[in-house]
Amino acid sequence: MLFSELGLAAELVRAVSEQGYSTPTPVQRQAIPAILNGRDVLAGAQTGTGKTAGFTLPLLHLLHTQKPKSNRRAVRALILTPTRELAAQVGESVDTYGKYLPLKSAVVFGGLSINPQIAQLRRGVDILIATPGRLLDHIAQKTVDLSQLEILVLDEADRMLDMGFIRDIRKILALLPPNGHDGRQNLLFSATFSDEIRQLANGLLHKPEQIEVARRNTTVEIVAQTVHPVDRNRKQELLSHLIGSQDWRQVLVFTRTKHGANKLAEKLERDGIGSAAIHGNKSQAARTKALADFKSGAVRALVATDIAARGLDIDQLPHVVNYELPNIPEDYVHRIGRTGRAGNAGEAISLVCVDEHDFLRDIERLIKRDINKIEIEGFQPDPTIKPEPVFKQRQQRSPRAGNDARNNGQRNNGKPNERQAAKPARSKPRRGNGANSGSGRPQQGRSGQRRLSA
């Protein structure tokens, strides 16, 4: 099946073709027709499966071909995302595929001055991409009109629940026009179908078509996974050795903490490896620059925390390194899903010390396989070293857990949250609307056909 056979407007097919795509991914083949038919959709899809284009393309088609409910420039489609980077990525997808349509869009999130966003909204937008906290700021200031909303999208709903956004989401839903038959169309995309997601879906969706293209918590099959046992105080040395000896030009490295990300990036720089850190305490301008430098090759290693990396769209990323294993086994799946996207090969390396054996066991139990262990010559762990206690936050993650999520719209030990950052008195105007996403580039699938991976 080709994009030209899905029933999309000619302007959309032209835009997709110009990006080098011809064959839709599985989630796009299922989601696009269902959305075009006006159905509510509950879709289970990991990042990297093409889900963003799976809802942006039919959303653009419907808004283009259907007459607005009102003559005033009210928002017709709302896309909620958990993080700033994902909001910026979705916004770029809307711009890329809607380039030949007379539709206006805006991206709003915290960390930037609210005043330029207010001015843009007052000029009128058809499609609004937003994080929950900043959207509630605009609602409180009466700078956004959602009374005529036709389509609602919750993207990466599982992560929004993990980050504690459920109350904000419910506040927003209560302010929207009715859904159901002849009402608002609702689309919910999630990497997993937990009980909480199903409960949210039951209250939001009207007779939805359920789409599931990836089994719950299944790792990307084509990602080669390896564990390198190493002593805790030699991890950075081993990482520098791997990057240098194997000439890795682009590697995404995960740490558990923001402080750890900064410290590791500085150490890699001292070893002559261009590096940058990305996490919630970084300003939006710094996060955007770090991601852009990584994509352009100006830095070889991007050191990130879990929340900051969620939704990053990096074309053909070859290497992911777990410098520290995550406390939550499911986060391992999300981490390694940064590579091996859209049919491309990828490699996930985990540097595991004696303190993390329990974490590793939990991960292997989750993915139902043993990960290959290879000791690197000269870096074999000392068997006499005893494990030290590591804070272990189990699978029942608290919505108010003190992690990087607080700086993506939550409260964090008195530090500004997304809404506080939105206040003009505390923010300086900045140009741009977020991360420089790599969406819209052609990906080579297994069959040799180009697939849309946005």
Radius of gyration: 22 Å
Strand order of the largest sheet: 3-4-2-5-6-1-7
Outline the biggest β-sheet: 7 strands, parallel
* DSSP strand tally: 16
Full CATH superfamily name of the largest domain: P-loop containing nucleotide triphosphate hydrolases
What is the second-level CATH architecture of the largest domain?
3-Layer(aba) Sandwich
CATH class of the largest domain: Alpha Beta
Q: Structural class per helix/strand content?
A: alpha/beta
Q: Tell me, what's the shape?
A: elongated
Terminal Cα separation, in Å? 18 Å
Which stretches are poorly predicted, pLDDT < 50 over at least 5 residues?
Answer: 392-451
Strand percent estimate: 5-15%
In DSSP terms (H or I, runs of 4 or more residues), the helix count works out at 16
CATH topology of the largest domain: Rossmann fold
Number of self-contained structural domains? 2
Summarize the amount of helix as a percent range.
25-40%
Domain DEAD-box RNA helicase Q: 1-29
Catalytic activity: ATP + H2O = ADP + phosphate + H(+)
Domain Helicase C-terminal: 237-382
Family: Belongs to the DEAD box helicase family. RhlE subfamily.
